[in-house]
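Reference record
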Amino acid sequence: MDTDAQVRAENAARTSYGRLLALLAARTHDVASAEDALADAFERALTRWPLDGVPDDPDAWLLTVARNRQRDRWKSAAERTTVPFDEAEHDGAAPEAGRDRRLELLLVCAHPDLAGASVPLMLNTVLGFTAAQIGAAFLVPTATMAARLTRAKKRIERERIPFEVPGPAELPDRLAPVLEAVYGSYAMEWPTPPRERHALLLGLAGTIADAAPSVAEAHGLAALLYLSSARLPARVDEDGRYVPLAQQDPRRWDRNFVAAGHRHLRTAHALGSVGRFQLEAAVGAVHCARGAGEPPDWAHLRRLYDALLSLAPTRGAAVARAAVVAETDGARAGLGALDALDGVERLQSAWALRASLLDRLGDPAADAAYAKAISLTTDPAEREYLGRRARGTGR
C-alpha cells in the first residue's frame, strides 16, 4: 500500500471526521446513517488512493463518496418501503467541503432532550472517540455506553432536532455541555495529543469563542487550552525526560499560544462573569508569568484554587490546591490538605503528590506511594520520572 496515501487518509480521519459527519447528518438528522456512509468513504479511500493517487481535495472526495452512499441507501428498495425518498434532500452533489457545521452538531448533541447523553455523544460524533474510550472515561461499561449513544442518535433523527445555533438567550446554557466535551476531549488526550488532533481542538475552541463572543466561558476554555498547550514543548527535555511544571524553562514555551491565551482571558474577564474555565486559565496564566529560574506566585495560585473549589469543586483541583499549600505552608501542611480529601484513592496526581511530599519529609512510606503512583501513570515520560524519583536518582 502507498504509505503516503494511507497517512493522508488517516490524517483526514483524525482532522476532518467531525466536520464531514456534521455536513452529512445536517440534511437528514440521521447521525448513524451518516457515520456508516463516512466509514464507507474512508474504507474506499484506503483502497483507491494508493492506486489512483490522493485527490487534490481529500475532504471533498470523501464527502462526495459518503453522500453517494447515503443516496444509494435511501433509494434502495428496503428503505423506500418505510421512508419516502426526497430527491432534493438527498442530492448526491456534495456541498462545499470546506463548510464547518461542527458547532451546529455539537449544539444538537447539547439539546435539552438529550440531557444525560450530551457530552458522550459529542465526544463520539464530533470528536471521534469510541464507545469504549468514552465508557472508560465515564467509568461505564462499553456496551452500556454504546447503547446510550445509539438511543441518543435515534432521538435526534426521530425528533429532527434542528442543526442551528440558538439565539442569544438560549446559547449560554446550550454551550455549557459543548465546552465540557471539548475540554474532556483535550483532557483525555493529554499530555501527548497527536499534532493534528491538538490543532483541531484549539481551532474548535476558537471557533466556539468566535461564534459566542458574549459567552465568557467560551473564551475561558479557549484561554485554558492555549495556555496549557503553550507549555507542552517544555514538558520533556532534550533527552525526552519529563520536567515538572515548576521546573520547566519558560523560554521553551510557545509565546504565540501564551499571547492567544491571554487575549481570550482578557476578553472573558471584560464580560464580567467568572466561571470554571476562566479560573483554570488564570492558573495557567500565573504559571506562564514566571521567568526562568523563578518560582510561580504560589500565594496567587492558592487564592485562585480557593476560588475554583468554591465555584466548581473537583478532585483534581483539590489535589492541585494541596500541592500549592505544600509550597506556601510546607510539605507537612500540604500532606494534611491531601489527607483531608475524599475519593482520591484512584487518582494518579494524588499519589504522585503524596509520594513527593513524603519524600521531602524523609518518610519511608514514600516508596509505597511512588509505586502506587507509577502503577496509575500512563504517560511513559512521567512514569520514568517517578521511577527515578523512587530510586533516588531524580531527587
